[in-house]
Amino acid sequence: MSSQSVSERVSASAVMLILGTIADVTAAVLFLISSDTRSWLREHYMGLTIFSLLLVAVVLALSNVLLSQRAKISDLESRLADPSAHDSDMFQAFNQYASPQSNLLSWLRSGFLVTSYEDTQLNLLGQFIDFYDRDPRGFDDTELNAMHTELIQRFRTLRDRIGPNIFPVPHSNRYTIPPEWRDERPELHSEAVEQISTAHDELLEAYDAFIISAQRKRFKSHLEARN
Questions:
Q1: How is 81-125 classified by DSSP, letter by letter?
Q2: Mean of all residue pLDDT scores within the chain
Q3: Which of 4, 96, 108, 161 is least buried, going by the fewest C-beta atoms within 10 A?
């Protein structure tokens, strides 16, 4: 591919069009100086007026198309641009804790139980959130940063929904929503299950959207996961 960008080529074409138009107008002015030409113009005034209006309309339409294409080209170039060094580092740091192959995502996607948790699973969730509490920097890419911010908030929401509703099981490393709630406090049990389930589903939806967006923006996958 040429080192000259597509948008630069479009700009060069627009300049050539303007220069050509100026040259044509200059030639036309010199031509109109003759008396025969002025006489012919008076006889065909109406037709020339209509033709001129149509020509102006065509030029305006072509200008609008040109501006539209330049906007699309600029957007395409920004999408094809390599991520900044900062964003690449941020994405690599994210993957160290929460790549699709990490223990955290394996639990959330295939091993998640709404009513029962291992302490190691809760620790993975807590470590990930603690990392972003210590280093709250975002991405340079505006769209990706908004999705990343929402995703981190989804992780925090899940933790906040789980925490008040589970209690340690004696002589084990597990935590559960108290099973007696089903009989003694059914409304509380149903509310806890519903809130945690919703937070879990929304987290995975935000996660998938973030990862897909990162892939489209040409971020390289870092599959190494911190255990």
A1: SPPPHHHHHHHHHHHHHH-TTSHHHHIIIII--SSEEEHHHHHHH
A2: 80
A3: 4
Q: How many CB atoms lie within 10 A of CB 44?
A: 10
Is 50 exceeded by the pLDDT of residue 117?
A: yes
Q: How many whole angstroms separate alpha carbon 90 and alpha carbon 84?
A: 10
CB 70 within 8 A of CB 7: yes
Can you read off the two tokens belonging to residue 203? 């987290």
Q: In whole angstroms, what is the distance from residue 11 CA to residue 128 CA?
A: 47
Strand-pairing partners, residue 176, are 116, 167
Reading the block at residue 209, the tokens are: 């959207």
Structure-block tokens of residue 140? 């340079």
Going from the C-alpha of 211 to that of each of 51, 52, 121, 223, the distances in angstroms are: 55, 54, 22, 13
Distance of alpha carbon 139 from alpha carbon 147, whole angstroms: 10
**Contact in structure between 124 and 104 (CB atoms under 8 Å):** yes
HSE-up of residue 55 (Cα within 13 Å, Cβ side): 7
Tokens 């044509």 correspond to 24
The pTM is what?
Answer: 0.63
Q: What would the mean pLDDT of 173-190 be, rounded to a whole number?
A: 94
User: CB neighbours (10 Å) of residue 8?
Assistant: 12
pLDDT at 59: 76
171: region left, alpha or beta (phi > 0 left; psi from -120 to 50 alpha)? left
Examine the pLDDT at 23 and tell me if it is beyond 70.
no
